[in-house]
Amino acid sequence: MEPTPEQSPHHAYPDHWEADVVLRDGGTARIRPITTDDAERLVSFYEQVSDESKYYRFFAPYPRLSDRDVHRFTHHDYVDRVGLAVTIGGEFIGTVRYDRINDQGRPASAPADEAEVAFLVQDAHQGRGVASALLEHIAAVARERGIRRFAAEVLPANNKMIKVFRDGGYTQRRSFEDGSVHLTLDLEPTEKSLAVQRGREQRAEARSVQRLLAPGSVAVIGTGRTPGGVGRTVLRNLLASGYTGRTYAVNRAFDEGAATLDGVPAHRSLGEIDERVDLAVIAVPAHRVPEAVADCGEHGVQGLVVLSAGYAERGAEGRELQRELVRQARSYGMRIIGPNAFGIINTAESVRLNASLAPESPARGRIGLFTQSGAIGIALLSGLHRRGAGLSSFISAGNRADVSGNDFLQYSFEDPDTDVALLYLESLGNPRKFNRLARRTAAVKPVVVVKGARHSGSTPPGHAVPVSRIPDATVSALMRQAGVIRVDTVTEMVDAGLLLAGQPLPAGPRVAILGNSESLGLLTYDACLAEGLRPRPPIDLTTAASPQDFRDALAEALADGTCDAVIVTAIPWVGENGEAETGDGQVLATALHKAVAGGAAKPVAVVHVEIGGLAEALAAASSTAAPRPRTVTPAADRPQVATTPPISPARSTAPATPAAPAAPATPEAGPTPEAPTTPPVGPGPGSAADPKAGPAPEAATGPGRIPAYPAAERAVRALAEAVKYAQWRRQAAVPGKIPEFLDDTIDEPGAAALIEAQLATAPDPRGRPLTHDEARELLGRYGIAVRPTLPAPDPEAAVAAATRLGYPVALKTTAPHLRHRADLGGVRLDIADEEALRRAYGELTDLLGKPAELLPVVQAMAPRGVDTVVRASIDAAAGAVLSFGLAGAPSELLGDTAHRLVPATDRDAAELIRSIRAAPVLFGWRGSAPVDTAALEELLLRLSRLVDDHPEVVSVALEPVVVAPHGLTVLGASVRLAPPPARSDLGPRRLPNY
């Protein structure tokens, strides 16, 4: 909305202040600056506010606004006087304004940094979080305009407004003056204000998805008059699922007077329906969707599932149609799943919703499923159904123009019916937020992700999202850091989901293998070794083993404290006539379930070859829908088991603060730095192990379904993912730290001054690379010493440089095509004297070219060690990333580089250097001396701190970093400065607009 010429000509309309927000009840609203065109809206809004609310706003009866008031409240300069409005359907439901004031409380201009603020919210919308959202946005606007404090006068009886200020998390001061409460808020964001903001965001977005998945009534718009077609199919599926709410069929082509269709009320428009409709499923051609959305908005529909295609997947014109669809829906306070969606499912007994094109509703279970592809959604639903797994919820978001995987994580975190979240994603609209939400969710329940379109280099059709330039390997590493179980295929996702939903998490990597086939046992053993597990020698029960033999062996393995998980292998029994006997699957499944029911809580998986009915029997014997709670046996009567109890996959009611996983200690990779000793993560509050909790969550304890796999490799891979996730969970209970000693050796103000001065002289607004000396000075402010180099444009200069630095020296080229390429002959090391230096200089120029092309430099030799590379870079979408690897072509060719998000903790740094495949080289591989990994970890922490403190440092490469047995030497450094990219995860809450 553009301002009229009456607005201040010096300050253009700030359209970047416009934002869509999710309110506390899950509805959406739009926040935007107030303009002179809003006079009528403001008057209409004020007329709908109660006399009491007007009294609280103006401290006196104030029945109507005068013309002067209207002019004052709609004319702003967007600097010293700013007004914001919250709108739904184009009408105001709340306003806020600030006026800059001086020390005496009079109107002022900059440099005055205080403003008086006042709110007014329509009574019908109070309690929806409108004022809280306005406070976040007006505070961000004020900070942008140089205002540091808000002052507010509130009547003591206005408890709601006092609570808004008190709960905002900002530092505040309060006093009682002249019969009113005087509040002063410091607007600098605090850890508490950020936590409050994210907590509100989480609850609001979870509620917005919950409203879509649990509507009290559904209208299918575009229901055909004859069988077939998308709308009629959805209506049929709704009825077949036993949906517990009210259902309506809507089609403007229905004959007047048409009463019912398939037994449900039939209407030509939503306006004919006497009751409110909560959810509308739109299945009309794209050109008719705007009309349907307007009809929904005008009649109070809360959310939409748009199945219609013809949007961003069709190109630029369709992308604009999609954006307009989102704008239109949000203007009415509605959220959208789609367009081009497959639908949604909620199997909760109180809902039983199948508003999708899936002909069969899945069984009720503990797995939540989100997919950006209808075809993949169909495949996943089918695969889970075949293997007897149930779902709690399902969302197929299509082009996911609004509701996304991030929203699904917000919902899954709170949903008590979901124990495992599975997501198929083709794009990440906000990677920073995804990592934050995934880390928090993974701390209480597993999150399994398959990422499609990994190597296409382009955004999938229909997905308009910010482009991230980081490679897929980096994305995978960052997901792992957040506790996400990243798998490559949807088959692996189902395999992992089945194990995680039905079995407890393993306490460690030790695996017992038992079965009636020696060969299948050996295949399983080999697969365990390949996945980094620690299998015990397989127990061969022989082909004559009976189901009772299986039961006894499994019970013994579960009671054995030297194993953490059990894999049972089974082949068909062979009868006396030499033919394989089938039909014994039910008997074997019963035996295995009895063993699990009486044993310790350890994960069990079954690998079988052509045993008819076994997988079905294992699934049917104990569904994921409601595993029977296990009674906790007193310790004195319980069989001896592993000292570290398994983690329950069920959601804890008191989630721990997640942290990065610690590195696994191996003889070659070196020990993991000691962490504070804490008890391992157990079942957590709400489980049977918590005496203060009520009944145990359904899948927290007890024998869940036992997953069955047709191949050993698939079972072992799923178990290995569970082992790594369980380790992450245990480590997440003890967050890493940033050592305090860094504060004493870092000159943050000095670095800031250098950066400001260097950017001020940059001719290119996109920034510039620093010279060698500039980079050394900046890095030195953070305690990172870079060994100096001196230019050597000719032999005489090289000799002078070596004399100054002291022999022995290195002579190397710095031309871009030869930099860090010792294999091309551009480096000469251990030059002991002038004669050797002159000889090396001549050889270098004879071999590679003239000095002007080679740009040779001289540098003092560093102690011998392992050459490594440390980098940090900022990706506009993902954020700052810290990377580590060994120097050289082999590591680069193999992609052997580890990555972590900034800021990195001591645990992140330790895990970073241990997670590359070549890590044993650092820890004494083949008898070599171990290097100083403590110094390397400190370097990583210092670099992390630099790019975290100064986002203008968009790229740093330290190469090579020679790590010796004692200390390290940074031989080369390159730094690039630029204005920092906009942070998508900071600032007030807002829905993305793609």
Structural summary, described in words:
With 994 residues, the protein is of the alpha/beta class. Helices cover 32% and strands 21% of the residues. The protein contains 28 helices and 41 strands. It has an 8-stranded mixed sheet, with helices on both faces. A 7-stranded mixed sheet has the order 11-12-10-9-13-14-15, with helices on both faces. A 7-stranded mixed sheet has the order 17-16-19-18-20-21-22, with helices on both faces. It is flat, with a radius of gyration of 32 Å.
How would the blueprint of this fold be written?
Layout: E1 19-22, E2 28-33, H1 39-47, H2 51-58, H3 67-74, E3 81-88, E4 91-101, E5 114-121, H4 130-144, E6 149-154, H5 159-166, E7 172-177, E8 180-186, H6 191-213, E9 217-221, H7 230-240, E10 246-250, E11 260-261, E12 264-267, E13 279-282, H8 289-298, E14 303-306, H9 316-331, E15 335-337, E16 343-346, E17 353-356, E18 364-371, H10 374-386, E19 391-396, H11 405-414, E20 420-425, H12 431-442, E21 447-451, H13 472-481, E22 485-487, H14 490-502, E23 510-515, H15 518-530, E24 534-535, E25 539-540, H16 547-559, E26 565-570, E27 573-574, E28 580-581, H17 585-598, E29 604-608, H18 614-621, E30 708-709, H19 712-732, H20 741-744, H21 748-760, E31 768-769, H22 772-780, E32 789-791, H23 795-805, E33 809-813, E34 827-831, H24 834-848, H25 851-854, E35 856-860, E36 866-875, E37 879-886, H26 889-894, E38 897-901, H27 906-914, H28 933-949, E39 953-963, E40 968-970, E41 973-977
Parallel strand pairs: 5-6, 9-10, 9-13, 10-12, 13-14, 14-15, 18-19, 18-20, 20-21, 21-22, 23-24, 23-25, 23-26, 26-29, 29-30
Antiparallel strand pairs: 1-2, 2-3, 3-4, 4-5, 6-8, 7-8, 11-12, 16-17, 16-19, 27-28, 31-41, 32-35, 33-34, 33-35, 36-37, 36-39, 37-38, 39-40, 39-41
